[in-house]
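Before going further, learn to read the protein records used in this course. Taken together, the tokens spell out the fold as the letters spell out the chain. A record is reproduced here so that you can trace the correspondence yourselves:

***
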Amino acid sequence: MGRLSDLQSGLGRAMEEQGLWPADSPWVRRVAETYPRHQFAPQRLWTWNGQEYVVVDRAVDPEGWGRLLYAGPYESTVTQVTSGLPTSSLSCESVVADMLDSLDLQAGHSTLELGAATGRNSRLLAAQTGPDHVVTVEFDPHLAAAATANLEATGGGVEVCIGDGNSGTPDGRRYDRVISTYAVEMVPWAWVEQTHPGGRIVTPWGRLGHVALKVAADGQSARGWIQGLAMFMPSRGTAATLSWEQVRDGHPVAAEAPFGRDLALLHEDANVLFGLRVICPDLQVRTAATEDGRVAWVHDGRSSWARIEQNGQGPAVAQQGGQRCLADELTAGWREWERAGGPAVYDFGMTRTPEAQYLWAHHPETGPRWGDRELTGGVLTA
């Protein structure tokens, strides 16, 4: 265990040096160091070798297994792969700390967690609330069993339920705090219904950020600010979309034209990327630096794509294909973000009502808003 303890200490120091332990919630560091990642990790972890996910078995490669767990503050550890895709993980330590801080969790708070995974997050929650105050819901029976074993081995006092986290708990009881460990596009109304008025809901949204919502006094709405950037797996049952490559292979180049924006901003400024995620919610954008400049890949997961490349200080050029002109849509979204004052990540917020969900910037009542999504007859519409 000596090597693992050294790796754990190294991660803790890196978190401290980068200012990632929340100063307002000193309990977060204490419990994270009391219950380290390796206590909850399965014997088989997974890593991407450039072509596919491959197993790293603790019995075969203990050094590699440990390095995957403690790779750095921003590195998650894949703990389950299904049909070639990751379906569960130990979240990166920086985001775990940030979300726990956002929850404003106090001793004695009744807490509902959606997505038990390995059980570590619910153990951290219970270490703050005290025993018998945390309920965690897990869709996968195998993960639920592993989480139960890990939690019992580290002190018990957490109730593990098998079910669909989007529905909350079957008995409909209310909680002071609700936290999800998977990303949703639409915050389930059941989460609002099962949170006491004045309580908080913290959840990843859209696979790019996480939000903290406060439930109104009448229980008929919840709203709050984006808390930071985070990439999480979606909820089980979320329809899979095609990759950029799959969309591109099915639709040849239809147009090529200059792209009048600096790709360096899109690649380096998270505020731009997040703003475009809010304004153009169905566009998936990925960027990379190359030897000569920057490149961006854009697609809608179905039928349209764009590839934008900029070499050196020269103009960017966009190729696009499919039913839509995604480079043009990206440019229009970028202009709209600028007209709104170029809001940063932390200038955005969300409101959820029984009928709709929307995001806004600067102010929930007077600021610009986007993405009104309504429920009509139980069907989500955009």
